[in-house]
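Contributing: when you submit paired examples, paste them exactly as shown. First protein:
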Amino acid sequence: MQQSDTQVSTKPYLLRAVYEWCVDQGYTPHLLVRAVPAAQIPREYVRDGQIVLNISPSASHGLVMDNHWIRFAARFNGVSRQIEVPVEAVGGLFARENGEGLSFPVEDVASGEQSGSQAQEDDTPPEPPSAPPPGGKPKLQIVK
């Protein structure tokens, strides 16, 4: 997705809206992030090239979601860490309790190309993740 220098993507606005919805509903917002070099994240927790971060008000401090970066402090194994994630590296934001939220194609931060072997060819939206089984942990399904 190419943008002009003056136009900002809708993605950061949608991320803020889903975050607000999660918090208003009493859900725990989780951010799915691709571990790109520009992201300042705890690399020891990265699995399969991505990390899921709890960004609830009780788990993060000083959360700022602007049009280009998501920044906050969080504790990992008792140690406070500063987290900085480019919006382009965000693959989704969802509620831990029911898996509801939005997923996004993750663009290569340097080139602006979509990650994965093939970008989606048509304009049909991806299938939303299915609800988790009762009593089980939610599982985010990445649709490419």
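Second protein:
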Amino acid sequence: MKKFRFTYLLSGCLAFVSLLGACGQSDIEPYSSKDMIWFTQQDENYEPVNEIVRSFSLYPGAETLDVAFEVNLIGSVVDYDRTYLAVVVDSLTTALPAEYELHPQILHAGQVKDQMLITLKKSERLKNEEVKLTLHIIANESFDPGYSDGLQVSVTFNDITTRPDWWTDEVARSYFGDYSKEKFEAFYNYSGRNEIDGLLPSDLRKLLLGFKEYIRENNITEADGSEMIIPVY
């Protein structure tokens, strides 16, 4: 009889421990009777990207810019489109409704991953100030929110003239010369590029020699009329 009672007590303790373990796991992994959606954007180093920064000054002539965040399904893949819902967080948003457009938020049929598209719109005040748009996924008829660290994203944008990060002192000395808004816009108009990522030094030199000739042929100068210098030979 004592052995029977001990076995019964031990079974009850193990069941209680298992229940505690299950409760602990539920704090880590969200449970839902519906499929879930969350943001999973990553950079080239596989680090999460929850904020995108854009400046219209790096896209001369552009009145709108499109940005996208990756969304990811937790659940079943189906053969029809489903909408999810990411809403503007007013307390974390300074952009005006006229300065952005939210596109239909759809996880397309057969997809595990998709893109949430946002169009940024240039306004006069962006020349002097930076604004922010923040979005947060909430539940709708198709999806519940996924993991908590992937429910909110933001876009910070402006039209303030600044030297691009890649235009370093070394790049200036070896290739582009001193930065100016006029030189950057001329390079963009010539090459269609606003960055030089992925270019080998030999490719960059070839590109800059062509740009130098483009400046000469079109008589492009700095804002004060002085020569636009490209120190590549």
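If you have annotations for the second protein, write them as plain sentences, like these:
The chain has three domains: 1-29, 35-158, 163-233.
The CA atoms of residues 57 and 159 lie 5 Å apart.
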